[in-house]
């Protein structure tokens, strides 16, 4: 019913007094720990409170576990002893090595100081006491007890190691052998077999390192203690040193030694640097004063060579250093040097003064510029406002012209195509009529059949209408057949052409109807540009606006020339509206000079870049050289060209216009001029005589057309076209093959004399007019035989040619 409470004192305890005693296992009675339970207080309700209170527990030890613990304890003790011995050995060796190194470094420092002093006392001679060169080995302070203790512990390792006395004797014997050189055991200085220690690693050795006579390794003696250390101990020692340095446990003495070695190295470098500077200063001083530089001993000093050998100077050495061979320093040299320094100082002072002057000048210029900018502020504000307005206006103007230029080109092409078609029809009909008439003269009435008869009837009808028109308009004036132009067309064709012209005119008149006056009126467009020129002429010229003005005016000029029709209507260039606007450009602006170069050259530039190219296309496609009316209208329009300074032989556009005119005239000479040659009996026939006379007067008409263009064609070009290609080729043939004693001949010759002006006669000589002179002489003789007085006029003309 009720659970029995636990006894709190029944806890197992171990007897730890003699658990690890070796003889405990051999006891006769097994070890048993008797643990008596603690008395438990009686429970109030328990029926058996004292049950089991007096019972005992017997515990047996685990033998395997006890043995394992003993073995671990024994191993730990052995490891502690080994570590302690190893530590003692290391400390003894390190103590010995440190003492030896410290002694050697002290001796080396004293020796280097002595070398340095001896070198400056006497550089030429040194007396070395060999007997005392290695006395420092006797002064080594080595702890003998430490060595004996280490030797006793490691007896197998230290067997055969010589003591310090033996090492000292070996060093003395080696030095004696090196000095005397003739005893046994001599070590040659040029021995190429390098002494190697047992623990030294193989590596590549240069030739100079193989030389055993190198002073750096002449006195490097290897200690037996260092040779005894195995590779494993060396590696372990290096690792421990690395760990000590890594954790900052470096010995204070080692750090001091490193600092001392660095200081010594720094002192040596400073000494070398001072000596080098001293030599350089001496050499420069000698060169400055013109003395011979003293011969210096540039051989390596003793201090530059690291020797592990003590030297001792005995006695006072004799001075055998370099002597002063530089000569005597004169006062003039010192004065010259001082003057040179004064001159350099003056130059530097002048340079600073010039810099100061430039700085003051820059400051003054900047102040003047600031004042100028402040004074120009209102002007700049006006310019800015003008540029903003002009920017907006230019963009809108270009948008407007981009739309209108395409329409202008369209109507110009349409008008030009109509005129070209009309010119080609008239020229083709004229040339066909010339072939038909020549065929009628050669074949008679048999040639008038079919289409030829129709063409002949139409030709005669047109001639009759022209004759009746001349009788009403040219009453009292004589007219020759061949001088009139057969340009009459049918009523249907004329109506069609007129309709095309009217359409073009209607489109041209309303082309700018949807645009404001600021964009459709050339005067206002130029006014905006001229305002820019008046406000800021420099930016106007820098932007090359004056070169763009002709192109800007091109749509307006071409549109007006299209409406003028310069070939069919007599038009004067100076009377056109665009010309007046260009000439008067800037007259409304009082801020600009009217004689400005840009204003003066504006109209000629428009003529050269816009008008002349327009005329080139017109001449090539619409002009007929055999039409006197078209030629005279063209000459009237181009009469101002000779007054313009830019239309010269250097102008490409003007040369292109002249070339187009020449090509059209040459084409007429080839296809429209034909002088028939008839037999004497055929020339008496009326039809043949009329055809012969008509062709002669056609040649005179072409000569008149050429002379009408004398304002733009040079005299040399006219002489070539008139004299060489017309007179000598066609007129001379007409004089020789035609009738010579009739009244009609007088009219022919007088017409020719009228066209040959003085400029043409002076251009050529007797050779050029040789054929004409012979032909006129024949005609003059026939007139004289016929009893006519016209031969006198011919004689006067011939005398004029001969002069």
TrEMBL record:
Protein name: GCF C-terminal domain-containing protein
Single Gene Ontology BP annotation: spliceosomal complex disassembly
Cellular component aspect of the GO annotation: U2-type post-mRNA release spliceosomal complex
Region (Disordered) location: 1-33, 96-139, 171-218, 239-267, 441-499
Entry keyword Nucleus: yes
InterPro entries: GCFC2-like (IPR012890), GCFC_dom (IPR022783), Ntr2 (IPR028211)
Domain GCF C-terminal: 525-671
Feature: compositional bias, Basic residues: 1-11
Subcellular locations according to the entry: Nucleus
Listed Acidic residues bias regions: 208-217
PANTHER family: GC-RICH SEQUENCE DNA-BINDING FACTOR (PTHR12214), LD29489P (PTHR12214:SF0)
Gene Ontology terms, MF aspect: DNA binding
Biased composition (Basic and acidic residues): 96-125, 171-182, 191-207, 239-259
Record key words, sorted: Nucleus
Key word Cell inner membrane present: no
Family to which this protein belongs: Belongs to the GCF family.
